[in-house]
Predict the 3D structure of the following.
Amino acid sequence: MSAARPVAPPAGAPAPAELLEIRTIVRRVIASRVRDSHMVDDLVQETLAKVLTAWGRIDPDTAIPYAIATARNVVASTWRHLDTTERNLHRVVDLLPADRPEDAVLDREEGDAVATALTHLPDRDRALLVAHDVEGRELAELARESSTSPGALAAQLKRTRARLRVEYLLAMDHREPPTPQCRPVLLALSGGDRRRQRELDVSGHLLACPYCADLGRPLSQRASDGTSTRIAVGADADVVLARQTGRDVAISLGFSATDGTVIATAISEVTRNIVKFAGTGEVRIGRLQEPARCGLLVVARDAGPGISDVDLALRDGHSTYGGLGLGLPGCRRLMDEFVVESESGRGTTVTMRKWRSTGGPGGR
Amino acid sequence: MLVSILRQGDYLLASINAALDDSEMRRFQEALVERIGDERCRGVIIDVAALDVLDSYAAATLGSLADMARLRGAETVVVGVSPEIAFTMVQLGMSIPHVHTALDLEQGLQVLGRLTSPLPPPRP
């Protein structure tokens, strides 16, 4: 709203008494049309400014009617302007939510943590990480420059990333590790180095040190989904391949021969269901590594017709194809954890876990 | 050779030598039932020692195989169930009904000898 600028009264400026009279009338005219008192003040000023600018051109006798007309016009044009603004207001609404104030702080904190973590890396490791992950240069090219093999660089890169993860967590936490043992333990956990974990008795340390148990959780969870074997299932022979792979993985994780057979049998049952009902699918067999225990994860997935009644399918003796009806309910008894997710027409996912019964990692 | 079927006297010895998938299991079942008639056998021994798992399908197949054999006049004994498979089958809540079991081939032959009384000598 344009406020009245001090206008130099042109020749024949109105006498103060005259101006005061005009101002009173203008105010009455505007106040009868506008409720908001601040706006009334603004509009009175604007009207008077216009009247004074035009003073030389108007007949002093018609000054008051002129001021009244000007006041009406000013009010009308203000309404028009407000109307237009209101009509178009929705156009300026920002559909993207405004940044929450804490986001910027969190981002900065995370950036600081990464920066701090980077400074803790040895120079050579940091240079390699930056060259490969930030500048996007190929390992082969870097290997030629430093006259080593790409494989050696890849191993170095893997160690460096493991180290960066630990340093990042430490920097985010703002606490110093309570014992000198903590950093190497977290490092072994982050790198997934099982031999080193055994040497350091990582599982023992994690039980005793709440700090590492807390910080190590994301590290060990990360390690547990990194290693899995995928078997595409499409024919009877794949059932045998899947169950034999499952047994091999189980034995390599230190499961007993009996548990190996138990796991292979459960895999056989769920994989057969894929072949029989969906035709094709996949089985993933992976390692579960938690601080205190170690186990095997089996995920059998298909995009077939799904199970219309999961509860019924899990009941003993219910078979849709003349089998013993022991497949799914039997698996539930064989494995420690057993979950069937199925949606009619969308496929089925069976997730099974078996935990190794005794000893920590590396026991037996 | 996944399965070998040999004749010994009045009996057939069927050894499963590798892990069988479902269709191989089914072919084995058909082949064995046919051989029982061809060889005019009175007993069958199935050695499952080399089978990696005995899941619900394999157990059902062995069970129906024994039923079919009995209809063809032969008794069936399953031998070589490993401790791991025994443990798993019990946990799974599974048994092979109407099938005799024995520890190994030797005991299997004894069981068959008891089950199949010698046929009366042919009339002169």
About this structure: Chain B touches chain A through 24 residues (CB under 8 Å). The two ends of chain B are 43 Å apart (CA to CA). The helical segments of chain B are 22-39, 56-71, 83-92, 105-115.
